[in-house]
Amino acid sequence: MTLTSGLGGQLSIDLGALARNWRALDKVSAGALTAAVVKADAYGTGIEMASKALHAAGARFFFVATPDEGMAVRAAVPEAHIFVLYGLYPGAANLYIRQNLMPVLSSMAMLEEWLAKCVERNEAYPSAFHFDTGINRLGFRLGEAGAVRERIEKLGYAPQMVMSHLACADQPNHEKNRTQLALFGSVMAQFPGIPASLANSAGLMTGRDYHFQMVRPGVALYGGRAVNGRKNPMSPVVTLHVPILQVTEGRTGEAVGYGASHTLNRNSRLAVLGYGYADGFPRSLSGTNARPGGKVFIRGKPCPVLGKISMDLTVVDITELGPDLPGPGEGAEVFGPNIGVDEQADAAGTIGYELLTALKGRYSRNYVGDGNLPDG
Fold first, then answer.
1. pTM of the model
2. What DSSP designation does 375 have?
3. Which has fewest Cβ within 10 Å: 52, 153, 174, 326?
4. Catalytic annotation present for 258
């Protein structure tokens, strides 16, 4: 592939695939509302375009991490229902109300500040309540459920939803999933008639017992693997090609990259790519003599990383491509038809989430397959 922009790498985002993934998950979760998690710039795909495509596909409920992300979704999809997972920032209640954002309240302090604003304005502004059922992150403690219920009953306030988050849903047979399900049931008993949400992407795929009234898929929307040990059924959404800057030759015994961690054991042809850890290619994909690293694909063939990945540059071995060598400007596939984001993540010793959300590099974004976006 020859890169056409002349300005560096090219990230292609298939909005049609994103829409198909949401519709497929919505079909699996039939009977529950299917939201869309678009935090972290929609997992690196661009929050504005992704939100529009997901809304066109049928999503009406969106989850973000911060109020700023919520405002970005509001600008892109004015009629969206938006939950802010970080909850209520101190002193920011008026901003949430102006932007029609629903904080996911997770502490008594947040609850009291939100209720005080409701009383001040004589209006029951919507929110969700998040209870920690075993992941020890954000959330009311289980023992606070009674106090939360008593506090809102005094004011006649009801949340839009009660939710929690699974710690081990990527391992469907993990005992903690069933434990959290039971604990969440005990929370729900304190809030009869209030809609509930527990399932992320993996929880949605684990079974209907986890669906309740709303599911909250994230990584699966963007083509990432949600459940370990199973074939990923989702359509890939991102393809990334980065430019070859130079093709050179290395001799047996010469070292490649910082620290001289890879010494060539044969005469080799090398391609220097305009792509490094500043662009989201982690140093853990470096290839040394002690361990193989990641790989990219050039002309449909795997080319292993040699030496340490630097801030701006990565060197790959193109010897196996034969005598018809690529030239400067030709593209190397980092993610795409030949290598998925999760395969690259496995080689890096991390998860696809991390590589997707790191897609902030020095490359152009190209959106394809409009996902039935409305005009304008």
1. 0.93
2. P
3. 153
4. yes
